[in-house]
Amino acid sequence: MSEIDWKPHKSSTMPLHQQISNYMKKKIMNGEWTIGTKIPPQRTLAELFEVNRSTIVSALEELAADGLIESKVGRGTKVVNNTWSLLASTPPPDWVSYVHSGIHEPNIKLIQEINKAEANPNIIRLGTGELSPDLLPNEKMKEVLQLNMTENLSLGYVEPKGDLSLRKTVRDYIKTKGIEVSPSSILIVSGGLQALQLISIGLLKRGSTIFHETPSYLNSIHVFQSAGMNLFGIPLDNEGIRCDSIERLKRQHNGALLYTIPSFNNPTGTVMSDRRRNQLLEISNKDSLPIIEDDVYGELWLDSPPPKPLKARDKQGNILYIGSISKTLSPGLRIGWLVGPEPVIERLSDIKMQTDYGSSSLSQYAVNKWLKSGIYEDYLTQIRKKLKFRRDLTIQILTKYFSELATWSIPSGGFYIWLRMQTGISTRKLFDLALREGILLNPGSIYDKNDQEHLRLSYSYASIEELEHGLIRLSELISGLSDDQRPELD
Predict the structure, then answer these.
(1) 222: domain CATH number?
(2) Enclosing domain of residue 249
(3) Phi/psi zone of residue 486: left (φ > 0), alpha (ψ -120 to 50 degrees), beta?
(4) 3-state secondary structure of 83
(5) 407 in the same domain as 360
(6) What is the DSSP pairing of strand 38-39 with strand 76-79?
(7) Residues 181 and 266 in one domain
(8) How far is the CA of 483 from the CAs of 82, 424, 476, 478, 488, in angstroms?
(9) Within 10 A of 121 (CB to CB), how many other CB atoms are there?
């Protein structure tokens, strides 16, 4: 309801409170605001409608007199009736109760706030994990989508696993990473997140335990929790996920699988060492612990390529490998791939057909052309140079303005710098303050609910000017909060 984009006309002969009352009544009578819908506080409504609070009071009193809303102390104001309940013998469904009883867990409140703020074009997004619109290959994409007479483009449904031509191209592409599989072991998915969703509902039992690195991107989404799974974090060090306790934890918690981003971890930017990858694979083989390897950042190396994926070392079919072009080429195409044993791919492709009848055939066509023609590799070379410039600029700004406020490591790829605050200030308080200043942050608590000292900074999305201005202003806000927390001297 906070998305109200209507304002009363102050030049109208109709009183403002009457305009607002009529607007809200229409929303209720049309069924857009159903029974149980909570009306925002008076102060919030006054800000949304840009009127005095007394005007809101008058409008709400009129709605209450019509029996459309009801206020209770401590519970706020809610819609209690609409046109259907006034005319029908039985009341309409209470959609709010349905919303709260749905099986899919809602995003955490902080993520919802971030998603909402990202829609504001005036916000400086210092945490967004995607390429800047300035870096996306819009002109080249237009060329790629130009058809010639010899090309065959189908706009119908494709087979369950995805377009065979694309799967063959993906097979050839991942072979350059050391992964050798047939097209029948590849499932085309609508981005990496859908791969996780399919795994959660297609392979695992309710109550299963999913191991993951801490902190982890997995904590920022509720795909496994919504399927009745439990998440269990295992600490990271500078070589990646620590393996010394995995065998014991698997026995204690009956771990079903382990999720990892070994190359340029989200949010820390950590790269799992070659030694640690071999150690993890050895444990996986010994204890029959399947691994989901999320490699969506693996191509975004800036200094030198990361070690070969776990899947390239997999001789027993223990690894489910996720790749995608969402972080490199286009988030809007929504195309990725899941590589695994054929029975797993068959099972998940069947579920995918039940849910969306296949990923976009047009998007699959475009990605196939990018990968097959070789222009994708040329494009990646340019993107790495641009991201390296952005990373180096961000490090320069941090060194100049944050040296007494925070510590960090220099990432060798990906999008993120894991900034550790030295001041002891509340990152949630900093998030709220920065948002009021037009700066959007990603606090560490998104990736580890107990983390109150980190920020995930992204150098990939904001423009160069926004990056510099936003970081300098952020340093001033942190300094101001730090000064506020210092005890006064007698």
Answers:
(1) 3.40.640.10
(2) 138-373
(3) beta
(4) helix
(5) no
(6) antiparallel
(7) yes
(8) 52, 11, 11, 9, 10
(9) 5
User: How high is the pLDDT of residue 371?
Assistant: 95
Residue 255 and residue 249 in contact, taking contact as beta carbons nearer than 8 Å: yes
Q: pLDDT above 70 covers what percent of the chain?
A: 91
Quick one: pLDDT at residue 151?
A: 66
Do both 452 and 334 map to the same domain? no
Q: Give, in degrees to the nearest 5, the angle at Cα 168 between 162 and 172.
A: 135
Number of helices and strands in the chain (H, E): 17, 16
- Whether the CA torsion 360, 365, 369, 371 is positive or negative: it is positive
pLDDT of residue 489: 43
The closest alpha carbon to 384, from 460, 278, 465, belongs to 460
Token digits of residue 14: 């109709």
Q: Is pLDDT of 150 > 70? A: no
Rounded Cα gap, residues 131 and 214, in angstroms: 25
Q: 142-146, 158-162, 185-189 — which is least confidently predicted? A: 142-146
Here the CATH number for the domain that contains residue 95 is: 1.10.10.10
Separation CA 358–CA 157 (nearest Å): 7
Burial profile 443-474: b = 16 or more Cβ within 10 angstroms, e = fewer: bbbbbbeebbbbbbbbbbbbeeebbbbbbebb
Which has more pLDDT, 30 or 468?
468
Nearest to 110 by CA among 368, 449, 476: 449
Span between the terminal Cα atoms of the chain, in Å: 49
Does 3 reside within a domain? Answer: no
> Where do we find the tokens 């859908």?
194
For 452-467, how does the pLDDT look when each residue is reduced to its tens digit (9 = 90+)?
A: 999 999 999 999 999 9
* CA angle, 323 then 327 then 328, to 5°: 90
The domain total for the chain is: 3
What would the mean pLDDT of 233-256 be, rounded to a whole number?
92
User: What are the CA-CA distances from residue 219 to residues 115, 210, 278, 447 (Å)?
Assistant: 16, 11, 25, 5
Q: Look at residue 490 in the predicted model and tell me its pLDDT.
A: 42
**Mean of pLDDT values over 165-186:** 95
Instruction: State pLDDT tens for residues 6-40.
Output: 899 988 999 999 999 999 988 887 777 888 888 99
- Exposed (0-12), middle (13-18) or buried (19+): which is 420, by Cβ within 10 Å? middle
Whether residues 256 and 368 share a domain: the answer is yes
Q: How confident is the model at residue 183 (pLDDT cuts 50, 70, 90)?
A: very high
